[in-house]
Structure formats: C-alpha cells, structure tokens
Design goal:
26% helix, 17 strands, single chain, seven-stranded antiparallel sheet, 8 helices
C-alpha cells in the first residue's frame, strides 16, 4: 500500500483592502482549525511591523521592524492587523492547528524618518537610473530613524543617510524626484539582476544601502530576534527584484545557521511573461529560495481574457513550474495584482476555478491560495 502524502498548500491570509480595524490577528487565530481542515498547511501573514501610516499601514511602508504593535509610534500602538500580543497568539494558534507560519520580510526600504538631514545627492532620470541629471547638491531628507517611541528596546541601532542609497523627497523644496545619495559605500546604485530602467535598485521611500556592513549586521540581528520571538517556519521576501542577490544570500545563510532552521523562503520577483529573468535570479541565489511563478500567472490572466481564443495546451509553456517545479510557488492572485494596484493583473472571475484547479490538482509546484478567493 502506498502511504498517503499530502501536497502542501499556502494560504495568503490578507489582502490590500482588508479593514483597518485591528482584527486580522484575532480572525486568523479563530479560523486556524478550519483552515487546517480545508487542507492548508502554511499561512502567509502580512508584514507585522509598524509602517509609516501606523494603524492604516498594509505593512510595506516599513518604519520600525522591531515594533510588532507594541509601541506608540506613528499615531498608533497596534498595527492595521492588531497588537503584538494578538499577533503572538495568532502564531500559536496556527502552530496548534498543525500549520506553518510564513512571515513577510520587507527589507528593501524604510519610510517615515523621524528627523531630516542635510545630505548631498544627485538627481536621477526615473526612466534611466544610471543617468544622473544634476551635479551634486544638498537636499533635506527624512533619513534619520531614531524610533523615540521604542526607546532602544530590542535594538539601539539608529539609521541615517549612510544607511540608504536613495530617497524620493526633498523636504527643503517639497519636490518629489529620485535622488541618489552620495555616501561612503559605493558610487550610484547597487548591482541587481535586471537592467529595467537602467538599474532598478531604487523602488521607493528610503532605499536601504546593503553595502554598509553595519546595516547588514543590524538586519541579521533583527532577523534572529524576529525568529526567536515568533518561531516562524518560513519567509516571503518582498521586492527581491530591487535588492542585491548577494545580500539575500548572506542574510538567508546567516539566518539558517544562526537559528538552526532550514526554513522555507520564497521571493517576490515579479516579472510576468519573463521566465529567463526568474531563472537568472535562481542562478544568482543558487536555489536558496523559491520564487512566485509570475510567468504562470501571466498565462492564467491571458487565458481568462482571451477565452476560447487561448490554447490551453500551452498554459504551462514558459513557466517556472515547468522549468523548475522544485522552486515554483504558483499563484492565481495576490495583493499586488488586485484592482488599483501598481501590478494590477486580475484573472477574470469566470476562469478562477479553472486556474485554481490547474495549480491545486497537480503534483508540481507549491500552490498559494489568495485570501479573497477563499
């Protein structure tokens, strides 16, 4: 008799427009047993730390990585999803139901600096980031992060302009633009995989400078603290397209060695219809992490739009799940593909049951179900 082996299934337990009432952690704790009965084996939770918009933050405008809804910062103690205590209880409930917890790691940028600094920059062409369109000049930037509400609890580290490669706002002139910071850790941007926009290191807010060794060490210390605090089982790495693969490799290697856990990792490298870029990133990270199959999502969206004109025998052509099924996390939707988001690309409702059948009813790939679809 062949023993039964359940294929694993992730549930992304949040969406962009979830209510700002602080209820999500309590809700997932209550629903955990039912979710396990449905066949979910891992819950992907949203960023749990304080964002610049406080209790309204979805979590990607990161302010303080150590504030899990514990300190009065950004006009709120709790996050959009609840308090630190409620977060910890949610993690315990998920584990008690026999599921794993995947946490959202957002290390590309910080937002909501506490103080400004007069710093020297060069203005950048937003469509060609390697084209500097000004001589060096001074701007007033919110690059000083002191976290006065936390008062050095968990970490005394203070962030300043030397911790960032670029910013997008000059408080002196009130101008929005992309400014490359002149600091001690390298000329211009860090090296990334893609040459989109010349160099796509800079995405938004205050872009973290991973060439600064003090920054790398602080993010390792924080990662250890976060794992020891929550006992997470895996990570979803945000915006890896805009982060040096060398740092991601260093951070993952350190975390796995320091914690003694070979935890699961999936990176968000969103390159719809561009399988070669996904494979190039996998090569650069030497298989340390899985990736979301943006190529398959592209095909699913196209099939939903084209209907009878789409050849379903080609639905898996040029997809990560076909090329590297061992490192493919398959999705039909996520928070970024929702309407009104920058990566808006919703699969039409009539095709969604078929799309989920294609990812859930096959051995290859690691399927991820989206909150609103469940």
């Amino acid at each position: 008799m062949i023993p039964y082996m359940q294929n694993r299934t992730i549930l992304q337990y949040f969406h962009w427009y979830y209510a700002t009432d602080g209820s999500l952690w309590k809700k997932v704790a209550e629903e955990a047993p039912r979710l396990a009965e449905l066949g979910v084996t891992a819950i992907w939770l949203p960023p749990a730390y304080k964002g610049d918009s406080g209790g309204y933050s979805v979590g990607y405008d990161v302010y303080d990585l150590y504030d899990l809804g514990e300190f009065d910062q950004k006009n709120s103690v709790r996050t959009k999803y609840g308090t630190r205590q409620e977060y910890m209880e949610a993690v315990k409930a998920i584990h008690a139901a026999g599921m794993q917890v995947y946490v959202d790691i957002v290390l590309n940028h910080k937002a909501g600096g506490d103080e400004t600094e007069l710093i020297k920059v060069r203005k950048v062409d937003p469509e060609d980031r390697n084209n500097f369109i000004s001589e060096p000049f001074d701007i007033e930037a919110f690059t000083k992060f002191t976290f006065p509400g936390r008062k050095d609890k968990y970490s005394p580290f203070k962030w300043d302009f030397r911790c960032f490669t670029g910013v997008d706002y000059d408080n002196k002139t009130k101008e929005m633009a992309i400014y490359s910071i002149l600091n001690d850790y390298g000329e211009g941007w860090e090296e990334v995989i893609d040459d989109e926009k010349g160099n796509y290191d800079y995405l938004m807010y205050d872009d973290i400078e991973f060439r600064n060794p003090a920054v790398r060490e602080e993010l390792k210390r924080w990662g250890e603290w976060y794992c020891q605090t929550t006992g997470f089982d895996g990570v979803r790495l945000d915006a890896v397209k805009h982060i040096s693969p060398e740092f991601e490799n260093e951070w993952l290697d350190h975390m796995r060695k320091a914690t003694g856990k070979e935890f699961f990792a999936v990176g968000e490298y969103w390159a719809p219809g561009n399988l070669p870029l996904l494979l190039k990133y996998i090569d650069a990270t030497q298989g340390r992490m899985s990736l979301f199959d943006a190529s398959l999502h592209h095909n699913l969206e196209a099939a939903s739009k084209q209907g009878r004109d789409f050849d379903l025998t080609k639905i898996f052509d040029e997809t990560l799940v076909a090329a590297r099924p061992d490192l493919a996390v398959t999705v039909v939707a996520n928070h970024d593909t929702q309407p009104l988001q920058a990566l808006e690309a919703p699969v039409d409702p009539w095709f969604k049951p078929l799309a989920y059948a294609l990812i859930l009813l096959r051995e290859k790939g690691y399927p991820c179900v989206f909150y609103t679809d469940l």
